[in-house]
Structures are given as structure tokens and as C-alpha cells.
Write a structure and sequence with these properties.
It is built from six helices and 19 strands. It is an alpha+beta fold. It folds into two domains: about 5-130 and about 270-290, Rossmann fold (3-Layer(aba) Sandwich), CATH 3.40.50.10330; about 135-265, Probable inorganic polyphosphate/atp-NAD kinase, domain 2 (Tumour Suppressor Smad4, Sandwich). The strands form three sheets. The chain has a seven-stranded mixed β-sheet, sandwiched between helices. Helix 3 links the parallel strand 4 and strand 5.
Length: about 300
């Protein structure tokens, strides 16, 4: 692993519960800096109120992403999603410290951070690359919005009550289907355990280069989720009345949709880079966080 000479700290905004963990993480990294193991420790500007009295460089997010070789994210999965969309274009890997509820992606416990960062600086932890998505909204008048990034999913959803959307889906130039549904989810393997899973989609191993297409509450029972290879462009063409519909990325970025708009989703040109603690196992995570499957040594009851 490369030497991380500059490490950034990003905390969950406005969360007083994360303050103690942020303080401990910052103090640990400052100790490494004083010991000559790191050149600099940066912190996001909005972390200043939660990290008083520490010898840190507080910088704006744009500067932080450009200068950092590694980011430590303290918070929940939502905090990591927001940081991931900003850091991925710069190739900055992320280590997540769990200060949220589920902690599916931020998988380092606060009490294990010191041991984990020691292993990291010794080059014992590897960087995992995760597929990301890039969404483009093409308006009916041929105008186009800037590309939007997503770590988990791109969702077209009707927010209006008791009204379905009508739309077509295409993979490149190949027609997939016509749909009447509450919406449509395009999910990465990382996002397959999020909103797409609650919509009946499959769990997709994060090492796969694949995308899950999941209709939301479809009118036709045969309109089921499907997994396709990544690399093509998924086109969602809206038809009819779409009042109240919008496009969201990771549930955090939202754009209003109009009749005749088309959403195009493709693989982002760069991956999300994640660092996990020792003994990380995706299947163990599924069992412990989502209560999926059974642990080793489990016995099956006789019928």
C-alpha cells in the first residue's frame, strides 16, 4: 500500500454524538503526525466546532479532497455516501468509522480505530474498488444537466400519492421493457443492500461489475428485478404525466423531472475506493447487519 502522507478527517455534520469519536480519531492521527508517520492531518471546515483545541488544519471540502491521500469518515453510511461522491473523482480512499445506526459501509468500530490505523500505516490493509454510477438528465428541449454521481443508486420516483409513472427502459439501443410503477432503481452492488433490497432486488456481491434494475411497486407482477452487466447505458424514458416525479442519487441529491425527460445511467469513470479493517467479510456483514443466512455451526431443525 502507498504511504498516506496526508490524511483527512470528515465527520457527520451537526451530530453531537460523533464529537467524542471525532476527537479520539483526530488525537490518534495527530500523535502519528508528531511521531513522523504522517506529514499532515486535515479536517473538514465544518468539523471545527466539534474539534476545538486540536492542532489541525481546517480546510474547505474542495481543498481537502485535492490535498488528501486518505480520508477517515466518522459517522454513518449516509456520511460516507456524501463523502464518497466528492472523494472518488480524486482517487482518495476512505476508511469509515461507525458512528451511525447500521454501519454497513463504515465498518470500523470506534474502539478498534487505533489498531486499524496502525495496520493501515504498516501497509497491511488493502484498498477495495467499488463500482459507482453516473446519471445524466436529458430534458425534452434537448438541454442536459451536469452529470450526477451515485455510490448506491440512481432512482426515478414518483412522489405524488396514488399515481404511477409510465416509462420505458433501454440498455444502449436494446429495448428492455415498458413499465407502470411507482419508480425505478438502478443500483450498484454496494447499493444492492440498500433501497433496492427493500424493493425486492437481489443482493449483489460488491466484487461484481454489475447493476441491478429494480422496479418499485410495479403494476404488473411479472415486472421483476434483473441484474445486467455494467458498462452499458441504461436509459429511462418518461411517458405521460410525471408531475411530482424526481431523480435522486443515493437519496441525497434530487432533481425534479418533467414529461418527456430521459435519464441515462452508466458506470462512473472512477470507482469508490474503500479500506476495510482486518478480517473483513462481506458475508459476515450480511449475517450480522441484515440477519441474512446462518452463522457457522448453526444446526437445522428437523421438520
Amino acid at each position: 500500500m502507498n504511504h498516506f502522507s496526508t490524511i483527512a478527517i470528515i465527520g457527520k455534520r451537526g451530530d453531537p454524538n460523533a464529537a467524542a469519536t471525532l476527537q479520539a480519531v483526530a488525537a490518534c492521527l495527530i500523535g502519528k503526525q508528531k511521531a513522523g508517520q504522517l506529514d499532515a492531518v486535515l479536517a473538514a471546515e465544518d468539523a471545527r466546532p466539534q474539534l476545538p483545541g486540536l492542532d489541525l488544519q481546517f480546510v474547505a471540502m474542495a481543498e481537502l479532497t485535492a490535498r488528501s491521500h486518505l480520508a477517515i469518515v466518522v459517522g454513518g453510511d449516509g456520511t460516507l455516501l456524501g463523502a464518497g461522491r466528492m472523494l472518488a473523482p480524486h482517487g482518495v480512499p476512505i476508511l469509515g468509522v461507525n458512528q451511525g445506526r447500521l454501519g454497513f459501509m463504515v465498518d470500523v468500530r470506534p474502539e478498534d480505530f487505533g489498531e486499524t490505523v496502525e495496520a493501515l500505516l504498516r501497509g497491511e490493509l488493502e484498498v477495495e474498488q467499488r463500482l459507482m454510477l453516473e446519471a445524466r438528465l436529458r430534458r425534452r428541449d434537448a438541454s442536459e444537466t451536469p452529470p450526477l454521481l451515485a455510490v448506491n443508486d440512481v432512482v426515478v420516483r414518483n412522489q405524488a400519492l396514488i399515481r404511477m409513472l409510465e416509462f420505458e427502459t433501454w440498455l444502449d439501443n436494446e429495448f428492455i421493457s415498458q413499465h407502470r410503477a411507482d419508480g425505478f432503481i438502478v443500483a450498484t452492488p454496494t447499493g444492492s443492500t440498500a433501497y433496492a433490497l427493500s424493493g425486492g432486488g437481489p443482493v449483489v456481491h460488491p466484487s461484481l461489475s454489475a447493476v441491478a434494475l429494480v422496479p418499485i411497486c410495479p403494476h404488473t407482477l411479472s415486472d421483476r428485478p434483473i441484474v445486467i452487466p455494467a458498462g452499458g447505458t441504461i436509459r429511462i424514458a418518461l411517458r405521460g404525466d410525471v408531475a411530482g416525479a424526481n431523480l435522486t442519487c443515493d437519496g441525497q441529491v434530487s432533481v425534479t423531472l418533467d414529461a418527456g425527460d430521459t435519464v441515462e445511467v452508466s458506470s462512473a469513470p472512477y470507482p469508490l475506493r474503500l479500506i476495510h479493517p482486518r478480517n473483513y467479510s462481506f458475508f459476515d456483514l450480511l449475517r450480522s447487519k441484515l440477519h441474512w443466512g446462518r452463522g457457522p455451526g448453526a444446526t437445522l431443525e428437523r421438520m
